[in-house]
């Protein structure tokens, strides 16, 4: 296990859930509701997507796999996916599509070099015509598995890692139950890691997201940092403050590391040259570094 015993209870990874959207209009619904281009996605490919509200704030993030021309699976935090299903209900009601929850468990493994999957590659295994295992390459030697209860995963249990650890190491910001509609896609670097397509058609929130891309400069960007081990870790959404107590960002996600806590945070880049702290607990952030070398995507 990758965590110390004192951290294990504080870092129970939030459960994940897989939704299936199927039917003749499945891709059409997603095309009009997400930042990703589902019309161009081929069967057997994966893509990250964000759902936004009309103000461009992210309601949910998903890792999606197109398993058939009319069927897409989407994985996200269980609590967030529950809210997402309710959000999509009116859009699906008058479409030729159906949304349902699949009974698939989600886990991740750090692979041996010979077993690495390309970050864009997906393996789909069916048993008697029913989905059994989906293996998704996450990059950096990680593979994520969505599998039924009776499926066999060909991996060493000792190589299993938490999804939170994979997300931290691959700089993949996630929406949590208490950060729904808190961030713009650019705050989470979604415009830099191919979560947002700027060539597809309109989607909810697209005008705000595109305006910032073409005419503005993001005020905040995604950074990695670490915190010392603590019995009461902070919660996603807590304020990031500088030494003068000014609010300069927010905590996005936490991950158990080896004896310390990994943190993803969205913060003003100019504020990262001085010490930063989490909330009122005055927990000091260390090893602060940008998640992507590009600080500003503005096209001028």
User: At the third CATH level, what is the topology name of the domain at 5-171?
Assistant: Gyrase A, domain 2
Query: Low-confidence spans: pLDDT under 50, at least 5 residues?
Result: 1-9
Major sheet: size, sense and barrel closure? 6 strands, antiparallel, barrel
Q: What is the name of the CATH superfamily of the domain at 5-171?
A: Probable tRNA modification gtpase trme, domain 1
Query: SSE string, helix = H, strand = E?
Result: HEHEEEHEEEEEEHHEEEEEE
Mean pLDDT: 90
| Basic shape | globular
Level-1 CATH class name of the domain at 5-171: Alpha Beta
End-to-end gap: 47 Å
User: Number of DSSP strands?
Assistant: 16
Could you say what the CATH architecture of the domain at 5-171 is? 2-Layer Sandwich
Explain how this protein is built:
The longest helix has 16 residues, at 78-93. The chain has a six-stranded antiparallel barrel with strand order 11-14-13-12-15-16. The protein has a five-stranded antiparallel beta sheet with strand order 2-3-4-1-5, covered by helices on one side. Strands 7-8-9-6-10 form a five-stranded antiparallel beta sheet. It is an alpha+beta fold and 300 residues long. The termini are far apart. It has helices at 5-8, 26-33, 78-93, 163-169, 206-215, and strands at 16-22, 46-52, 58-68, 71-77, 98-102, 105-110, 122-127, 130-139, 142-147, 160-161, 221-228, 239-242, 247-256, 260-267, 276-278, 283-290. The chain has five helices and 16 strands. The chain has a domain at 5-171: Gyrase A, domain 2.
């Amino acid at each position: 296990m990758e965590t110390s015993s004192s951290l294990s209870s504080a870092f129970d990874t939030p459960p994940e859930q897989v939704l299936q959207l199927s039917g003749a209009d499945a891709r059409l619904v997603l095309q009009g509701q997400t930042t990703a281009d589902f019309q161009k996605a081929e069967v057997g490919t994966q893509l990250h997507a964000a759902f936004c509200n009309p103000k461009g704030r992210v309601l949910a993030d998903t890792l999606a796999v197109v398993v058939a021309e009319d069927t897409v699976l989407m994985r996200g935090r269980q609590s967030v996916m529950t809210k997402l299903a309710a959000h999509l209900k009116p859009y699906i009601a008058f479409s030729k599509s159906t949304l349902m929850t699949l009974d698939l468990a989600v886990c991740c493994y750090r692979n041996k070099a010979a077993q690495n999957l390309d970050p864009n590659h997906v393996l789909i295994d069916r048993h008697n015509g029913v989905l059994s295992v989906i293996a998704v390459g996450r990059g950096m030697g990680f593979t994520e598995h969505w599998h039924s209860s009776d499926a066999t995963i060909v991996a060493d249990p000792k190589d299993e890692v938490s999804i939170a650890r994979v997300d931290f190491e691959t700089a993949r910001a996630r929406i949590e139950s208490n950060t729904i509609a808190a961030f713009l896609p650019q705050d989470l670097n979604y415009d830099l890691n191919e979560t947002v397509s700027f060539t597809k058609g309109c989607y909810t929130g697209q005008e705000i997201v595109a305006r910032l891309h073409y005419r503005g400069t993001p005020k905040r960007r995604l950074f990695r940092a670490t915190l010392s081990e603590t019995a009461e870790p902070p919660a996603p959404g807590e304020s990031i403050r500088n030494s003068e107590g000014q609010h300069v960002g927010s905590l996005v996600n936490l991950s158990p590391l080896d004896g310390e806590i990994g943190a993803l945070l969205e913060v003003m880049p100019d504020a990262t040259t001085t010490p930063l702290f989490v909330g009122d607990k005055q927990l000091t952030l260390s090893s602060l570094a940008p998640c992507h070398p590009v600080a500003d995507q503005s096209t001028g």
